[in-house]
Fold this sequence. Notes:
Blueprint: H1 8-18, H2 32-49, E1 58-63, E2 76-79, E3 84-86, E4 103-106, E5 109-112, E6 118-124, H3 134-153, H4 156-180, H5 188-194
Helix pairs in contact: 1-3, 2-3, 3-4
Amino acid sequence: MGGIVKTAVDMANRALAELEAPPLQSFEGADPKARWFRANYETFRDELLALHDWDFALSLVRLPADTIAPPYRWAHQYTLPADMLRLPVQRADGSAHGKRLQYEVIGRKLMADVEPPFRLRYVRRVAREFEFSAAFVNAFAFYLAAGCCHVVTSKNSLKQTLQEQARRAIAEARLQDARQSGVRPQSDFDVEAMR
Length: 195
């Protein structure tokens, strides 16, 4: 489900349309818009992806234990996937409502007393824009527009308006994504609120 943009340039042009600015052909060249997107697009994308357990960005893997055990405290050590942006709360056997697992993350290593393989659920980097959901594309367009607004238009008042539109679009996209899902584990925020 998705596919309303095909490339990063398509996504950038959705943001530029919100600013009523001419589209880009690529991120190459000396044009200030192209330079801004070349320098910032991936950071903005990864930051927005990491905000939520987007269905299209979730991945499930079984991690083998590393051959070297942690120095102390935990029985096993696992190397986290290279494309991982965020690690949601992990539950026993990877189930939606299982017991919350105890673990520790240091760098790119997850340490736990869980026997291998570790059933990991994580938010991954999505570098192919055609995988984005329609709601995410809309939210990301406003998010990018707010970010590049000053470079493109030099209007701070428009930037504030776009930031508010981005907040609303992101909230709506998260809600749509959550509604679309079947059984889901509690979010990290729900767990924190219950304490």
